[in-house]
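RETRY 2/3 - previous attempt timed out on the joint model. Re-submitting the same 344-residue input unchanged.
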Amino acid sequence: MNSVPKRMDVQKAAEDVHRRTLATIPRALDRFIYLASTRDYNTGMYFHDGLAARFSAEVACEALADCHQEAYRQLLLCPVRELVSQMEAYIQSSHTRPRDFIAAWRELEPYRVAIPVRTDPFSAEFLFSNFRIALAILEERLVNSRRSLRVA
Amino acid sequence: MIELVLFFALGVIFLILLYALTRRTDVRAEGGAEALLEARQALDSLQNGLLPATLVERIFAQEDLDFVSSSCSREVRVLFLRERKRMALSWVAQVRVRVLRLWQFYSGHSRRYARLDLRTEFSLALHFASLLIACRILQALFYLRGPYAAPGIVARAIGAAGNVCVMSERSLSFLSHVNAFRPESAGNSAET
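RETRY 2/3 succeeded.
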C-alpha cells in the first residue's frame, strides 16, 4: 500500500527537478554530469537540500536517481555527431582550455564515475567507447584549427 | 546384417536417452535455486541490457559510420571502426553467454519449476539452437569483416533472441516474487 503513494511522490519530485533545474540545462551531457555531481561517492545516495525540504530525503534521492538514469539513457542513444557537438558546447561552458579538457578526460576518464548505479555493464562500456571516439574527433578538430591558424 | 545394425543403433540411442534422463534427476535443490536465479538474471540482462532495439540500432548505426567517414581523418575512422568492432564482438559474446545460461537452465532444471508442454519445449529448443548458430555466424562475420558486415543477421538474431525471451519470460513468470526479494547486489551492476 505504501509503495504507490511513495512512487507518486518520487514522480512529483522528479517533475519538480525537471521544471526547476533541468529545464535550464539543455544538453543531456550537462544534465548527466550535474546529476552525477549530486551523488555522494561514498554512499551512492543523491542529495538535494531544496528537494528534500519539499518532499523527503528518501524521495529526493530516488527522484534524482531516476533523472540521472534518464539523462544517461539519452546520452547513450545519442549519435556520435550529436555527442561531439554536446561535448564541444560543454567544453566551452566549462571555461577550460580545450586542450587541457581533452587531455584530462582522456587520462582520467571522469565519465566512468558518473554513470548511474545498477547500469548494465555493456551499455556503460558502449557509452565510454563513444566518449573515446568523440574525444578523438574533438582533438583532431583542435589540431586542424591550430594548423589553419598558423597557416593564416 | 542391416537389422543388426539398426537394433544396435536403437540400443545406443536408448542408452543415451537413459543417461540424459538420469543426469536430469541428479540435480540438487540448492543448485537448482541458484540456477533459477541465474536464469532470471540472464533473462533480465538480455531484456533490459543487451536486446533493447534502441541500443542495438545505435551500436550498428550506419549514420555514425557515415559521419566519421565524411568528416574525420583516416586515423579517427580506424579508431571508430576498432571501437565498434570491439563493442559488436562484446555484444554478441554476451548475448551468447546469457542464451547459453538460459539453455542450461532449461535443459537441466526447468522441469523442477515450470510445466512446459512438449510443443513449447521443442519450439524453445529450436529457437535456442538457431540463436546460438546466429551468434556464432555473427561473431565470425564481425571478426573478419567488421561490425557493419551483416545487418540482416543482426536483425534476425535480435528477433530470435526476442522470441526466446518471451518464451522464457512466460515459463519463468512464477519467479517474479523471487526477483522482488533478490538482493540488489545480485543484479548486473556496473558500479565503477
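Chain A is about 75% helix and 0% strand. Closing ticket.
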